[in-house]
Amino acid sequence: MKLIIILICLAGLRYIHLGRTVKRYNWFTSYAVAMQKYLQAIKQPWIITLLILLPLLIITLLIQLGLTHGIFYVIEFLFAVIAVWYCLWPISLSEQLETSIGKQKAANDQSASEMNDDEAVDPEEGDTRALTEAMLCHANNRTFAVIFWFAVLGPFGAVLYCCIAQLTKISSRPGEGLNAIARVAHTLEDLLDWLPARLAALGYVIAGDFSNGFKQWIHHFNGGLSSNQDLLISTGFGAMNINPEATGDEEEARQVLRLIDRSLIVWLVVIAIFTLGALIY
Q1: Which of 59, 83, 113, 180 is most exposed, with the fewest beta carbons within 10 Å of its own?
Q2: Residue 73 phi, psi dihedral angles, 5° rounding
Q3: Cα dist. 32→19, 38, 50, 103 in Å?
Q4: Which one, of 272, 242, 149, 273, lies nearest residue 199 by Cα?
């Protein structure tokens, strides 16, 4: 059933535009800030973080456990679909890529128009390497990790990861009043990312150049919690035979996007194999 739920959610995010806006998480920012003000007498960041997360996680877990009986099978299925769909990042990487490239071109055109002819910038000078690196990491944060924790813990796992990821994001912003728990939120996210990041990177290896990618994967595998992004970027570059010292371009970014799509297919095939194995045995 989990494979069907994942496929429905991924298809819905790709082909249905209803609700596909990052503003749908704005309520969580208001909730976290309000809880932080209510708990400001507590001086322990770990306790504050847990108290912010616990109400949402307890509600999700109670609903999940309450729907496990056979009579609620359809409602349980719908609840899981809604939870996973909501926790997956609503903006696809392909949309983000095209939007970023469009903004970069517009900025380059504006800069060129403000210069004299002899000061014009080479159109190939614009570096999209940072965008390529971000996509390799965002694919894990926005998709792979959510799917992984859903596969392991059900809707509770997806909500757990999404809440911590959002808390990490908003606690890093200045002026939100949550900076005191930023380190705790980052640590929790890195902890939840450790295994999914390695599996996502292994997907890059299988979907790309296995030899070069696997060397990078092995080299970074035993890294600590802070090594997740380095592992994803280095393995992705190795699987694509990309020179990290060279300047990136649009075509490279699109090739990395295709690598991510292929690795997602690898993930789905693996989940399907485990699902069929569970049904057989």
Answers
A1: 113
A2: -55, -45
A3: 22, 10, 11, 32
A4: 149
| 20 has a pLDDT exceeding 80 | no
- In tens, the pLDDT along 26-56 reads 999 999 999 988 988 888 999 999 999 999 9
Rounded to whole angstroms, the Cα distance separating 32 from 49 reads: 9
**pLDDT tens-place string over residues 129-182:** 888 888 999 999 999 999 999 999 999 999 999 999 999 999 988 876 788 899
Q: Residue 227 and residue 249: Cα distance in Å, rounded?
A: 25
Mention every residue, 6+ apart, whose C-beta is less than 8 A from residue 79.
Answer: 63, 64, 67, 155
